[in-house]
Amino acid sequence: MPVSRRPSVKPPSVRAYAWTWIGLLVLLALTTGSAFLPLGRMNLALNLLIALAKALLVALVFMQLARDTPVVRAAALAGWFTLLLLASLALLDFAARSL
Amino acid sequence: MTNATLSAEGPNPVPQRTAVAVQFDDAAQQRDADTLGMWLFLATEVLFFGVLFLSYSVARAHFPDAFAAASRHTNLLLGGTNTAVLLTSSFTMALAVRAAGTQDARSARRLLLLTATLGAVFCAIKLTEYALDYRGHLVPLLDFAFDVDLRQGALVFFLLYFATTGLHLVHLTIGIAIVLVLAWRTGRGAGPRHAERVEVAGLYWHFVDLVWIFLYPCLYLVARA
After folding, report:
1. A8 and chain B: CB distance < 8 Å anywhere?
2. A6-21 CB burial, b ≥16 within 10 A, e <16
């Protein structure tokens, strides 16, 4: 049998997937519930943080990024990195002059 | 890295009818290339949806009050339910990929069908929501009515709402079609590369879920307090 370049060839356990799913639903409840608390700007920060946590759970566990090869992880980050770069430049432009 | 088998068969082994295409050393390298290809496609998708999120950020900074008011007009019950449905479909998709990888065709088939069903439920709820939005006079260009002071900003909000959720729905529909084809093929002599195809389709499915994870707070939770 050929050797996989991935660090681990064993499929993730059903239990790990189930816990991830429960975690995602708990985070969904948290983000929805916290939106009803009058926290001012913290509402936005909390919503974004929870969305990021959910995205990381999906990417690392369900999409198996945590166990994939470095080159695949780099490719996965490339899109986000490019977006961050272009969005920062665009936002700087909007911040520097009035619409 | 099939040197062990090569040496056993001599310097010029007869090519076997295997799952590995000629340009790859072995199945593992082929699988890595498949995954890499899908991730590169997803990187372009990040930019595709990213520009919409960027427009949203700029517009929200420009019309904070209108975005707050407009967001309160979205249906939180349906939106929240749909988020749970989609997260659950990612769970069943991950299990389907696992089942296909362990050659458990029966489970893989059922889980793929379940995933497609959850995707269809999401679509049905989303379309119901669109109908309610129309009745609430929230559809730009068709029948839009909003508080005069906030009308311009709310119009931008709902243009972005329909653009992002609409494009997301198109992606999900494509995903459902792919998953259904894979479910149909599972166990019907799908060939040795079937598990790889399910895995790559799974990456696409999870990405569609990722987009929704960010859309949900941006559209439904702007100012509920």
Report:
1. no
2. beeeebbeeeebeebb
CB atoms B39 and A39 under 8 Å: no
Residue B17 lies in a domain: no
Question: Which among A86, A98, A23 has a CA at the least distance from the CA of A60?
Answer: A23
Minimum distance, in Å, between the CA of residue B50 and any CA atom of chain A = 6
The two tokens of residue B110 are: 């059922």
CATH number for B214: 1.20.120.80
In a domain, B41, yes or no: yes
The pTM (predicted TM-score) of the whole model is 0.89
Any chain A CB within 8 A of the CB of B202? yes
**Cα gap B173→B177, rounded to integer Å:** 6
ipTM value for the complex: 0.89
Is B1 a member of any domain?
A: no
Number of domains in chain B: 1
Q: Is B206 a domain residue?
A: yes
Q: Does any CB of chain B come closer than 8 Å to the CB of residue A90?
A: yes
pLDDT tens sequence across A51-89: 999 999 999 999 999 888 899 999 999 999 999 999 999
Which residues, 6 or more positions from A69, have their beta carbon under 8 angstroms from its beta carbon? A5, A6, A7, B32
